[in-house]
Amino acid sequence: MIRRLAQALLAPLVAAAITFAPAPASAAPNDEEVEALVQTVLEASYKEGNYKEALDTLNLAKQACAKKSACSPKVRAKLYVALGTVLAGGMKKSSDAKAAFATAIKEDPTVALFPDFTSPEIQKAWNEARNAGSPSGGNQETKEAKAASGGSKKTKVTYEGQAPGRGWRTGEGSFYYEQAIKAEKQSEWLDCAAYGRASYEAEERTSTLFLVASCEARAGLWVEAVSDYEATAEAAQRKNIRQMAAQAQRRAEELRAKIPKIVVQKPAGATDVKVRLNGVELEEDQLGSEIPVNPGERTVIATGKVNGAEQSFEQSVNVGEGETATVEIKLRPKGKAIDRALVQCMQNAQTQDEFDECIAKNRKLPLNLKFGLEFSAYHDSDKVDVVSPTLFFNVENPTSGWGFGGSFLVDVVTAASTDIVATASPRWTEQRYVPALGGHKKFGDVDLNLHAAMSIEPDYLATSVGTTVALDLRQKTVTPSLSYDFSYDIAGRSGTSYEVFSRRIQRHALDLASSFVLDKNSVLTTNFSLVIESGDSSKPYRYIPTFAPDIAPRVLPGQSLATVNFYRNPERILEQLPLSRQRFALAGRYARRFSASTLRMEERLYADSWGLKATTTDLRYLYDVGKNVRIWPHFRFHAQTGTAFWQLAYVAEKTPTGLQVPALRTGDRELGPLLGVTGGLGTRIAFGENKNWGLIASGDVIYTRFLNTLFILQRFGYFGALTLEVDVE
User: Domains of the chain by range and CATH?
Assistant: First the structure.
């Protein structure tokens, strides 16, 4: 027992639990250990015939769930199903097994038997526990419906030899029909369907079957209702009851359009695969195809062998009207060993608190690690090239609600743009280094995030720190957040000490955001941003051509470098920007998941105190090509006005007191009016034994039209990125 308990109690969560489990708030502290213990007991003690040992170990697990908050209802239900399995299948105590099964169903109405540990005795006790007192036992659909609803709170009535009612041939048929009508009037839809089914089995009447289908539909048994509506239509057609046939067929078609579906993807590289959906084994040809199901929570359990080793998988999905959910089976080993000190601690525990403390002290942290490498490159028609390798990682503890991560980016920039040539500067190359770190911790429904980053260039040093506080509301369907970031930058000149020349720039950034889960497939995110900047951000290398008052009106957009140099004033005037700036942005993102694709739309409106206004629209449509490949087209449109002080040709006039130039001036065409269009394509390929490796490739063509600038009127840019990422659980 000690060996098997040691193998089970602190086993990490199986991959399905890590990847697809509900949010951490819905998990309980001892779920992981108890769930692993149950599986190990069945596979070891029970399979080897050590039923007493198995029962003792499961009773020990009950201690771990003694406090309601220690285990979730789903895990307690599995524990009692395991107890019932041992009692019925091993110790032949059917009455005790029925009691255990009944407790399991009460804890979680959707719980099912363990597929690999089911025998006629176990199935019999299970059926009796689920359907105790239901008329005529009910059919399989009604049994599942009763379990899904937790069963009726009323005591079922049974036929006891009453005489048939008027127009009926059998007393049983008329009796159960009357009970079905009573249940219908009381909105007891499951009882109505069960009594109606019992009546139909005793005496086949088309009107009774129509009643059964109607009650099934209102009880959420849509699959069964469609089948019974169609059977009603066929029977009514044969009997020439045309109105009922037409009505039943119409209802069947309306309901069929609402039925949700589940697609179960078979694992690659596995043998002897068995898959069960809510306890019903799926045929080979059903895997990968759409399976109609009733709305609500459905559980997929799979077993199989990978390289000869037994592995398993379990996932629950919740599907609603018209939805299609895809479950990708990822088999994982069933158990791992732990320290014997934990077992000794539990055996020596004298109180429940001491018992819980043993588990808490020895619990291993389930960690998810994601890391990768990205290589991106940019080239444009203005002779600017950028190469950017990036390393990144993230560590997440989903059950404890904390995580941290970081990245390190290097930019290698080479430029010989028109602006550089215009100032008689040679082509140059420089590097930028960008380290970043961040982490978060959840405190109940509050998530606190801290982050920091730097950007290091030969002539510019940027630092920033910030925090974000997010709050989960309305069962995590609404998540507002507040972010604050502080940046402190030092701008200088390359090759010159900051002590000799430097400018200090400070920024305060405030972001108010909220995400809304609109339904099971749609998420809307909105945010408002405010950035307050102070300091001189003028470029110490950027010189602005100026013109005499009589020449400036004749300067045209896109005028060549030679023409500008011919007409410009001989003086070289440095750029001068305002010493403060306030930026405002309002943005929204909408994402909707379809059966095999996702649509993501973003819109951002921007304005600042310099007079610049902009709008940006971004669209992506991600489409799943099979279970391992995803592709997406990308479109982006950007339009902006120029700043209030933007001019195509700045006027400089010689006066007796010297050269008079505009107080504010810039040659940065990104501050002028422009239009930008981006189009591209991306793909992600999942590979590896567990599909936890991902290769992402994307490319974009960026066209920018400058509406009122010197030298160039358009620019073509080309951006590509290749990312390799790995998820380790």
Answer: 1-132 (1.25.40), 262-333 (2.60.40), 368-728 (2.40.160)
